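Example 5.3 — Nucleobase-ascorbate transporter 6
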Amino acid sequence: MAAPAPKQEELQPHAVRDQLPAVSYCLTSPPPWPEAILLGFQHYLVMLGTTVIIPTALVPQMGGGNEEKARVIQTLLFVAGINTLIQSFLGTRLPAVIGGSYTFVAPTISIIIASRYSGIADPHEKFLRIMRGTQGALIVASTLQIIMGFSGLWRIVVRLLSPLSAAPLVALVGFGLYELGFPSVAKCIEIGLPQILLLVALSQYIPHLLPLVGTAFERFAVIMSVVVVWLYAFFLTVGGAYKNAAPKTQFHCRTDRSGLVGGAPWISVPYPFQWGAPTFDAGEAFAMMAASFVALVESTGAFIAVSRYASATPCPPSVMSRGIGWQGVGILLGGLFGTANGSSVSVENAGLLGLTRVGSRRVVQISAGFMIFFSILGKFGAVFASIPGPIIAAIYCLLFAYVGMAGVGFLQFCNLNSFRTKFILGFSLFMGLSVPQYFNEYTSLAGFGPVHTHARWFNDMINVVFSSKAFVGGAVAYFLDNTLHRRDGTVRKDRGHHFWDRFRSFKTDPRSEEFYSLPFNLNKFFPSF
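Solution (predicted structure tokens):
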């Protein structure tokens, strides 16, 4: 017997939503305090990955040992807590964690290998000199975001963003970090793979198999899975599983090889100029400014993803510009305190909003409190920071995927039957993956980037810009979307521009006041447009 014909309503496509449904706690609705504190600790645990990985890679090259590495991690954590609080109160007011950024690693390495530091024999003195050089470059680079944000220049750029050009940008902010996912998991597959499997099981399967307690597993899957796999890794370590393993395997798999617990002080409060007075070099400052501009673009995509998972309306351009200005202040703080790294929106924490379905601002503010608390109590913070890297990378596999899918979700506003849409979307995604792949492959083989002139600062500027997948893909999509067949009457609807019209100004949608207005009636003194 033939199946009955589907009803007319069943043939209709899914409705377009300005705000993401099925979010348990949106931007302005905090969970109960016990739950909020646990969720805040989970955000702290997730952001530790980048906070530890970057100094672990940079500090030994700078000449520092475990003690310097622990202090840099503490400082980066302390500044991240301050920046996250500033962003949640005075910036975009979104639940975005502002932490370290991989974008700033390349110009920092360029400073490390500068010829003027090569003759310093004492490792500690070399570390201090290089740190002061990075501080000076970060202080200068921060002015780019501060000026573009607070002057409103970035507001003009964001106003021309449509769902079609936002989709590749946001998608590549997440998917573009694939190198930090399974390749890092595979460095110790016996703990990385169980972490992926357990996290998927706890967050996706258990909530449907056990509906009565499923919500707890869904929201706290990261904490539960990390505790189980971390204990498993600990037992492998004390049981002698890696006793005769290669040094690299021991470094990635063992739970006692980070050197952070022994190097961290019991109590230490980071303070400005703790490494000494910053030094300035024009070429290094220009290279760091290029990284700052790339981080600005990537953070814009991450902010858009955060607003989506917080079930807020699209962020008005004036609010986005305000957030970028305060992010510039965050980079300035990094330069003053000496973090050896700039600041941007934490992509992994943006993905955690999607995994937990909790987009509450209060949760992220609590996580900022944990960052500051554990940065001061060094030994306790170092215990959590010593989680093996493959466990963190396994978590990234899910969280980066969520951010990437936030970008794909914006295609609901676009006409996917339009050949213009297909070209812009496909070409920008392809170039966003292909161009950085060429730059990265060339650098790994030759030891320097494709642009290799006598001006090292110019080389760094070009190589940093074209090594970012989100920047290249987003820039291509933005240019094509704003220049290709603009006068065609159907293009406006095809690119989804009309869906975002009421969010291009702060006052044209009443929900903007609820989500993005400043506290303590500060909007009277700092109005949004």
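Remark. The mean pLDDT is 91.
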